[in-house]
Structure formats: C-alpha cells, structure tokens
Amino acid sequence: MIWTPETRAARVDSILAQAPVLPVLAIEDCDDAVPLARALVDAGLPVLEVTLRTPCALDAMRAIVNEVPGALVGAGTMLRKEDFLAVESTGAVFGIAPGTTAALYEAAELTALAFIPAVATASELMLGMEHGYRRFKFFPAEAAGGTVALRAFAGPFADVRFCPTGGIDAAKAPAYLALKNVATVGGSWMVPPAQLAARDWDGIARLAREAASLRAG
Question: How much is the pLDDT for 1?
Fold first, then answer.
C-alpha cells in the first residue's frame, strides 16, 4: 500500500464516519466476542476497537471478522511494530495506538491497515503531520484538556480531525461531537463490565442504540 496524507485521511474517514461512537472493547473471553459484536453492530455501532490488552484479543478479532457481517474491526493498544502484521492477519481493517513512536510510524508505512496514531500535545500532533497524518486519536482526552484543547487545536491545525478517547461517557460525548474537528468519540460506557460479565446482550444493545443516536450539534 502506498500511502499519502490524502489517502490516509480518506481511509480513516470512511471508517469513522460509520457511527458517532467507537466502542473500545477489552474482551477477556473469546466466546463473548461474536455475541457482543452482534449486539453492537445491530444497534448501530459497526466500528469496533478490540484492544490488545487480553490474551484472546487477536482470536476475538478474527471471530468477529468471520462471523459478524457489517462489523468494521480494528485493534487498539498497538504498542509494537510487530502488532501490525498480527492484526492484519485477523482481517481487521484499522489499528489505533495510545501514543506513537518512530517504530510505529515506520511499520505503518508497510501495512494496509488504516492507522490512527494518538497525540496529546501540539508537538506530538506536528510530528504526526510530518509523517503524513491528518487523523489522530486524542488520548487521554479528558486528562489532556478535553474539548477546550480540541478547540485550541482547531485554529493552527484546521485540516486535522480527531477521535477523542479516554474518560468520555454518554454525558460528555455530545460536547465532543459538537466540535467540527471531531470525527467520532471512543469509549466503553455502552459495555459496562457487570453487563458484559452477565452476558446481558440486550442491555448492552440498549446502551449502544443510545450511543448510536448521538450526533454533532
């Protein structure tokens, strides 16, 4: 894949535009992967970030890709260059890092995955732009300044858009989505640990439908 700033931005936009909220999932039991993904996708949240924080994360992604039509699966918590090949082998279409290193930027040049690096400061953002990126995860969103910081970024970085993640819940999400430089927000509030443990797919679906109904403005 030969990436340019334009093709990177367009590819990420095509994914994030599918829903206003990106569920961030830490799947401990691979048997939960498919029913959880079905509940979210059917409720209107088709773009799913499965974090590489659990032993079954790659198997969970592979199962969702193979068994849940309509799901756009990506990996979160990408920390090493080796993660790109592993994630791509599952059939996932995007990857997200909680921060970004030179090694990750280098590895991203050699993959078909749509890569979304994370930034928390203007300097990190400018470095990412030097590498050809215009779409970023803003993390940790609330701790890094929240909507105030994103409004400040909008001036000098007018062509950049963000997926803020970290500390955002159903009450805070609308304020982020009202910003022109926010494409979508990431969060896990629609998958409460107690309901996931109970495999309460109907309850999770109700929360997901509420999240899917959020819109900018």
Answer: 72
